[in-house]
TrEMBL record:
Domain ShKT: 629-665
Gene3D superfamilies: Metallocarboxypeptidase-like, Zn peptidases
Keyword Protease: yes
Keywords: Carboxypeptidase, Disulfide bond, Hydrolase, Metal-binding, Metalloprotease, Protease, Signal, Zinc
GO terms of molecular function: metallocarboxypeptidase activity; zinc ion binding
GO cellular component: extracellular space
GO BP terms: proteolysis
The keyword Metal-binding is assigned to this record: yes
Domain of life of the native organism: Eukaryota
Active site: 412
Protein family: Belongs to the peptidase M14 family.
Protein source organism: Pristionchus entomophagus
Biased composition (Basic residues): 519-528
UniProt protein name: ShKT domain-containing protein
C-alpha cells in the first residue's frame, strides 16, 4: 500500500485559526499502521499535526494533537484500518484553562501536598517556592537567587549564556565552597523543550532536596554536596518556556522549540503562517542532521542551520568543554516529558551503545528500580533509538560522545500510557513525580560519589606505594603492613555511626553507601591482593534486579498511591471501541483502503504465526495461568511479535508487564 495516498486525502483541508484542538491517541497494531504513523510524523507538521508522543513501535500509544476537523478525518482513517484510537482530550484549551489557569480556586489538596513536603523535610529551605504548582521563569530565577543568598557557602547562581530573546540561562551550582572547581560534576538540566513543564518542576525539586538534605544534616546529602559540584539548569530554553506561558491557545502552550529564526508569511487567506524555532535537542554536534531530525524550519524537530547554531546549545557546549567542567562531568542528566522512559546513549541509531555500556546499564537499571519502588510508576529502560525512535543531534548523545560525561541519561518523565493529559500534566502529579525521580537520581549520584571515593582511595594507595618503593632497602614482604600504618591523607569521611536505617525511601541509598564504604575500608593489604573494583558493582539493592541472563522475576512494587490505575484494557475492548466507526473517507479511496485492510489482515496472520512460534511452550490453554503470574499489559504479545528478544533486552520492564508472555514465572 502507498500510505502517502491516505496522507494526501487526510491533509488537504485547511485550518481555521479559532479551531478547537483535540488530542487523539492511537496504537499501531502492525507494521502497516506503524508505517502510516511514521509518515504522518514526518510530514504532518505541514498540516499542523503535532505529535505529543511520536510513534515508537507496534503496541505503543501515539498522541496526536490537531484541530478537531483534522482529528475527525484521522479518526475515520484509523478506524478504517482497524487501528485502535480514542480522543483523549476533546478540547486542549479547555484543559489548559482547567489545569493551569483556574487551578488557584481549587480546594483539593495542592496545599496539603506542600504541607506534607515540609513535614517530611523537617528543617525547611529558607528560600520558599510553591512546589506542586507551575510558575514562570521570573519566579524560578527569584527562588534560585534567594537560595544563593541564604546559603552562599554551597550555592551560587551563574548565567551560562543568553538566549535569542536576551534572557540569561540561569544555572545553580551547589557544592561546598562554591569557588572550588576541582570536584567531579553532576550536571542536570530541564526544559530544553519548552512545553515540558513537568521536567522543569522536577529539576527544581532536585535543588530543593539538596538544600533541605544539607540543612537537615543528612549525612549522604552532605557528603555529596561536600565532595561533588552540582550544576543544575532547570530551564534550558527560557524563551520557549515563557512563550508557552504567554497564552492558553494550544499553538503557544504546546510550543517545543526555541524562539530563534521565526519567519511569518501570509497564506492565501491572509492569515499569518509562522515557521521557525529550533529543536535544541537536535542541534548538538553528534550525528547532527541524521535520522530523526529535520531541515524544514516548520518541523517540530528542526535541527537548525548547523550544529550548535543556537545560543542555548552553545551555552551547554561552552560549559561542558570549559575549564571549570571539562573532564569532570561524571553524570549528565537531561529531563524531558513524557513517556516514562529512562534512556541511555546512543539515540542517533539503533543498536548503538558506548563502550562502558555495562556500567551505564547497571546504574541505570538500579535507578529505575529505585524510582519504581516509590509509587510503582513504570519506566522503560534502553537507548532512545531502541525504545523510542532514532534521533540525531541530541544533547545526551553529545554529552557522552564528545562532552566527556560518564553516566548520561535522558529521562522522559510522567505521564505514561495510563494518563492521557500529556504535557498538560495535572499539577497534583508534580510532587510525586519529583519524589520518585529523585530516588532514581540519587542512585546515579551515589554511583558517581562512590566511584570518586574509590578513585581517591586508589590514588592514595598508589602514592603510598610509590613512597614505599622510593624508600631504599626496605624488605618487600613488609610493605603491606607499612602501608596500613600510614593513614591516607584524605580519608573518606565517615559519619560517626552509620545508622541502621529503617527509613524506607532513602534507606536503600544509605545502605548502599555504607556497603560501598565497607568495601573501601577493608584493610589495604586485601585491596592490594585483588584488583580494585569500583564499589558500585557491589551495591546490593533490596529488591533483586533482573539480570539479562537469568531473567528472574522482580518483586511487584508497592502500588502507586497518587495515581490509581484504570483497569487494564484488553485489546479486544479497544477493538470494539474502534468499531464505532464514523462514516469514512472520500469514495475514491475506498478501494485502496479495502486493499490495505486486506493486506493488513494477511500481515496479522503471518505475524500471529510468527508469534505462536515464540510462545509454543507457554500457551495459555496448555498451562493455566497462576494468579500472581499474569501479564499486566495487554500489549505483551505485540511487543514480542515485533522483537523476539524483547523480554531479554527490556527485562526490567518486561518482567513486570509481561510475566506470563515472557515466561518470567
Ligand atoms: C478515552 O479517553 C477518555 C479521556 O478523554 C478516557 O476517559 C477514556 O477512558 C478513554 N477510553 C479508553 C477506552 O481508553
Ligand atoms: C575555597 O576554595 C578556594 C579555591 O580552592 C580556596 O582558595 C579558599 O580558601 C576556599 N575557602 C574556604 C573557606 O575553604
Ligand atoms: Zn523533550
Amino acid at each position: 500500500m502507498q500510505p502517502h495516498l491516505f496522507l494526501a486525502a487526510v491533509l488537504c483541508t485547511t485550518i481555521a485559526a479559532e479551531d478547537v484542538f483535540t488530542v487523539l491517541r492511537t496504537t499501531p497494531m502492525d507494521e502497516q499502521h506503524l508505517q502510516l504513523l511514521n509518515l504522518l510524523f514526518k510530514e504532518g507538521h505541514k498540516q499542523n499535526l503535532d505529535f505529543w508522543k511520536s510513534p515508537t513501535g507496534i503496541g505503543y500509544t501515539v498522541d496526536i494533537m490537531s484541530t478537531k476537523d483534522k482529528i475527525d478525518e484521522l479518526q475515520g482513517l484509523f478506524n478504517s484500518l482497524e487501528m485502535p484510537n480514542n480522543r483523549t482530550i476533546e478540547d486542549v484549551q479547555k484543559l489548559i484553562l482547567d489545569r493551569e489557569v483556574n487551578v488557584k480556586h481549587r480546594k483539593d489538596g495542592l496545599g496539603s501536598f506542600g504541607k506534607r513536603m515540609r513535614d517530611e523535610a523537617g528543617v525547611a529551605n529558607k528560600a520558599k517556592y510553591q512546589f506542586g504548582e507551575y510558575h514562570g521563569y521570573g519566579e524560578i530565577v527569584r527562588w534560585l537567587n534567594e537560595i544563593a543568598q541564604e546559603y552562599p557557602q554551597y550555592a551560587r547562581v551563574l548565567s551560562i549564556g543568553t538566549t535569542f530573546e536576551g534572557r540569561n540561562i540561569i544555572c545553580i551550582k551547589i557544592g561546598t565552597n562554591t569557588s572550588r572547581t576541582d570536584k567531579k560534576v553532576v550536571w542536570i538540566d530541564g526544559g530544553i523543550h519548552a512545553r515540558e513543564w513537568g521536567a522543569i518542576h522536577t529539576a527544581l525539586h532536585f535543588i530543593e532536596q539538596l538544600i533541605v538534605g544539607y540543612e537537615n544534616n543528612d549525612p549522604v546529602t552532605r557528603s555529596w554536596v561536600d565532595s561533588l559540584n552540582f550544576y543544575i539548569v532547570p530551564v534550558l530554553n527560557p524563551d520557549g518556556f515563557e512563550y508557552t506561558r504567554s497564552d492558553v491557545t494550544p499553538m503557544k502552550r504546546l510550543w517545543r522549540k526555541n524562539r530563534a529564526g521565526i519567519t511569518c508569511n501570509k497564506d492565501q487567506w491572509f492569515r499569518d503562517r509562522c515557521c521557525g524555532g529550533i529543536d535544541l535537542n537536535r542541534n548538538f554536534d553528534f550525528h547532527w542532521g541524521g535520522s530523526g531530525s529535520s531541515d524544514d524550519p516548520c518541523s517540530e524537530i528542526f535541527q537548525g542551520t548547523s550544529a550548535f547554531s543556537e545560543m542555548e546549545s552553545q551555552a551547554v557546549r561552552n560549559m561542558m568543554l570549559g575549564a571549570e567542567l571539562s573532564g569532570k562531568v561524571q553524570a549528565f542528566i537531561t529531563l524531558h516529558t513524557y513517556s516514562q522512559m529512562w534512556i541511555h546513549p546512543y539515540s542517533h541509531a539503533r543498536k548503538s551503545v558506548p563502550e562502558d555500556i555495562a556500567e551505564l546499564k547497571s546504574v541505570g537499571a538500579r535507578a529505575v528500580a529505585a524510582l519504581e519502588g516509590v509509587y510503582g510508576t513504570k519506566y522503560r529502560f534502553g537507548t532512545g533509538a531502541d525504545i523510542l525512535y532514532p534521533s540525531s543531534g541530541g544533547s545526551d548523545d553529545w554529552a557522552k560522545a564528545k562532552g566527556g560525561a560518564k553516566y548520561v541519561y535522558l529521562i522522559e518523565l510522567r505521564p505514561g500510557e495510563e494518563v492521557w493529559d500529556g504535557f498538560v500534566l495535572d499539577a497534583r502529579q508534580l510532587i510525586p513525580m519529583g519524589k520518585e525521580t529523585w530516588e532514581g537520581i540519587k542512585v546515579v549520584i551515589g554511583a558517581v560519589y562512590s566511584t570518586e571515593q574509590s578513585n581517591l582511595q586508589r590514588d592514595q594507595i598508589t602514592q603510598a606505594q610509590i613512597a614505599q618503593r622510593t624508600r631504599p632497602g626496605r624488605p618487600v614482604k613488609h610493605r603491606g603492613h607499612a602501608i596500613i600504618g600510614r593513614r591516607p591523607k584524605h580519608r573518606v569521611r565517615r559519619p560517626k555511626e552509620r545508622r541502621r536505617v529503617k527509613i524506607v525511601r532513602s534507606g536503600r541509598v544509605e545502605e548502599s553507601l555504607s556497603s560501598a564504604r565497607s568495601v573501601l575500608h577493608r584493610p589495604t593489604h586485601r585491596l592490594r591482593s585483588q584488583p580494585i573494583r569500583p564499589p558500585i558493582a557491589r551495591i546490593i539493592t533490596q529488591r533483586p534486579i533482573v539480570s539479562e541472563t537469568t531473567a528472574q522475576p522482580v518483586q511487584q512494587p508497592a502500588q502507586q498511591v497518587e495515581q490509581p490505575r484504570r483497569p487494564v484494557q484488553q485489546p479486544q475492548q479497544q477493538q470494539q471501541l474502534s468499531q464505532n466507526t464514523r462514516p469514512v473517507q472520500p469514495v475514491q479511496l475506498t478501494q485502496q483502503q479495502q486493499q490495505a485492510v486486506f493486506q493488513q489482515r494477511q500481515q496479522q496472520n503471518f505475524q500471529q504465526q510468527q508469534q505462536s512460534r515464540f510462545l509454543q511452550p507457554a500457551q495459555p490453554q496448555q498451562q493455566p495461568q497462576q494468579q500472581q503470574c499474569r501479564d499486566t499489559s495487554p500489549w505483551c504479545r505485540a511487543w514480542l511479535r515485533q522483537n523476539a528478544d524483547v523480554c531479554r533486552v527490556s527485562s526490567i520492564y518486561m518482567s513486570r508487564e509481561c510475566r506470563f508472555t515472557c515466561r518470567f514465572c
